[in-house]
Amino acid sequence: MKHRTTRLGTIATVAALGALVLSGCSTSGGTGGVTDAASAGLTPITLQLQWVAQAQFAGYYAAVDQGYYKDEGLDVTIEEGGPDIVPQDVLAAGDVDYAISWVPKVLGSIEQGANITDVAQIFERSATTQISFTNKDITTAADLTGKNVGSWGFGNEWELFAGMQQAGVEVGDISLIQQAFDMNAFLSGDIDAAQAMTYNEYAQVLETENPDTGELYQPEDLNVIDWNDEGTAMLQDAIWANADKLASDPDYADNTVKFIKASIRGWIYAANNAEEAAGIVTAAGSSLGQSHQLWMTNEVSKLIFPSTNGVGLIDEAAWANTVDIAMNTKNETGATIITAEPPATAFSNEYVQKALDELTADGVDVMGADWAPIDVTLNKGGN
Amino acid sequence: MTPLSPPLPERFGLPARWRGAVFGVLGVVVLALLWELYTVLGPEDGVVIGTLTVLPRTSDLAMPHLATMFARIFEPVTGAASARPLWQAVAAGSLFTLGIASVGWLVGVIVGLALALLLQRFRLAESAILPWIILSQTVPLIAIAPLVRRWGAQLQFGEFTWESWMSVALIASYLAFFPVSIGALRGLGSPDANHVDLMHCYAVGWWKTLWRLRLPASVGYLLPALRLAAVSAVVGSVVAEVSIGLRGGIGRLIVEYAGSAGGDPGKPWAPIFGSILVGLVAAGFVGLIGLFLRRFRRGEVSI
Question: Are A220 and A132 in a shared domain?
Fold first, then answer.
């Protein structure tokens, strides 16, 4: 009898665990995209990001939240990226309608056959820097000689290599160190000059307590090599569209203009309402700390505003510079991103120009000449 | 009420069934003590031989104190007013990952058993397929995770659409089927030749031999394989979640919390503890299955 009861008990436990596990599964149905069920009459559009939800994409999340896409008749679902998700490949495979990615990374994919087009260059400036503690005395690319230089690799290294090449520093003159997602190697001194995005890793350092003072690290503690100033900046976050569909499908071309238009409105909203935009991104599922999220919103706005030609318009000189670096900069294996000029379909100002014209006609300020960033105080751990 | 011979030896004054648990806890305590001792006594810059770091630095960044990690678990995830405590976020993530890993495990076990039966039944299949099964495990997971997600995204039958979590479960099953197929194959082949011959003498068919002889004999091989598969499924789920950035699970938390390693050293450890917990629960679940099959568990082998 005793045997019987224990077996029954076991069956009950297994059944309970099984139920628990299945309930865990059934809640996992959603893909985390932002969708609206009651979207009758709206055109479904999917956007592939290059990373998980964070303020780097605040404009798109704000455009969803504020209904800007809906105003244009689009029902936009945002697909998050991940470490191994290559947005331009997902786009070229036809799985999504638009993708966000850096220009140099996509140039490589285009040369390998991806037929996609940069339809709006949202980030005008580059956010990649090489940071070091002031006691290392690294203020220019030339100072990197003989130092431990960190880089994430995987296509994030080209501005650094171009800067070094321009300063006459060979890849063999530095010791190149693979950087992780965190800044611990930099903080502990294993890396002298670390790669840092102004909107992310730079802030991560400023959120860390300096063991010598007991206070957080201050901007005065750091030297920053900004590739915009060095002249080797490359174009970063852009909206990419499928070139074949742009040519063959008038509806898709039409939607592209609408998508860009609403996205620009989203970015204008994020720049002018940093607090709210940071809150929208957090509500969309980002778990970044509050002050870090706000910092990121503010910093990415600086990459867009004030705008030189209108948000999203591709500056031909900057494009040519990016292509030039992509063709002539060698990495540690001696390879370049591309070997020949990209095809004419690699970028087009046609759609963004239409979008800008329509926005200007509506009285929207697409230049942000008077825009000024806010002051963000970072807290420990970004909280 | 004194039994003639005690059924279980009672050393240390503890019943044997508790001894395992006590030693398990003791092992964790020793590990924790070693960690803390090293942070106090270890050289500040770690132990470096040549350019190779053999032992880590002892700074709070590299090796936060256990107290830091535990205190962090009870604080909110972020400073936002709506933020829930970190342990809740990790628990939710753990449950999500456990769910996916279970689906992956189930699929892996079914596929693994089916393969083992096929290989056992047909000698030709064994020589043709077995090398491929082994080769399959040399494919790097991070390479196939995004591919599986992309292929999956193109699948659609009527109402059914392929969700990203299914890609993760598929990868978990890809890792899980391997130990099951190998373990089951060995188990099915484990009966003595004279037992098999006896079945032949009785003119018993393959299916009945399987049911009466081979399956019961395989249990001892199968259970460790199932446990290994459970742990592999968890590892596969977490790695695939990291790889494609799937929201909701432990893998995603690992990616998201990594950035705060500098300013908030305790935080990135929380999802690591979560994944250990998921692994333990998964292995424990298989232990429960073992209870049902108690009478077949003679001479269990350990893998």
Answer: yes
Over residues B294-303, the pLDDT tens digits come to 777 765 655 4
Which of B82, B88, B164, B234 is best to mutate for the A interface (most A CBs within 10 A)? Answer: B164
Task: Indicate yes or no: CB of B262 within 8 angstroms of CB of A80.
Answer: no
Low-confidence ranges of chain A (pLDDT < 50): 1-6, 8, 14, 17-39
For residues A213 and A248, membership in a common domain is answered with no
**Segment 254-293 of chain B within 8 Å of chain A by CB:** 255-264, 267-268, 285, 288-289, 291-292
- Two tokens at A8? 């029954």
Which pTM was predicted? 0.83
What are the structure tokens assigned to A370, written together?
A: 């008077």
Q: What is the CATH number of the domain that holds A273?
A: 3.40.190.10
> Closest-CA residue in chain A for B75?
A383
- For residue A10, list chain B residues with Cβ-Cβ distance below 8 A: 288, 291-292
Q: How many structural domains is chain A composed of?
A: 2
Q: Which residues neighbour B82 within 8 Å (Cβ) at sequence distance 6 or greater?
A: none
B247 in A contact zone (CB under 8 Å):
yes
Q: What angle, rounded to 10 degrees, do the helices at B141-153 and B215-244 form?
A: 80
A290/B78 touch (CB, cutoff 8 Å), yes or no: yes
Q: How remote is the C-alpha of A108 from its chain's centroid?
A: 18
* Domain final residue pick, A169, A204, A230: A230
Give the CA distances from residue B281 to residues A15, B102, B103, B192, B220, in Å, rounded to whole numbers and listed in that order: 14, 11, 14, 35, 21
Question: Would A17 be classed as within a structural domain?
Answer: no
Chain segment B99-122, per-residue pLDDT in tens:
999 999 999 999 999 999 999 888
Instruction: Judge: domain B86-296, CATH 1.10.3720.10.
Output: yes
Cis amide prior to B9 (ω within 30 degrees): no
Flag whether residue B52 sits within 8 Å of chain A, measured between CB atoms: no
Q: Of A205, A230, A255, which one is at a domain's C-terminal end? A: A230
Query: 3-state DSSP call for residue A239?
Result: strand
Closest Cα partner for B96 from B244, B234, B230, B229? B234
Structural domain for A118, as ranges: 43-125+235-382
Which residue type does B151 have?
Answer: W
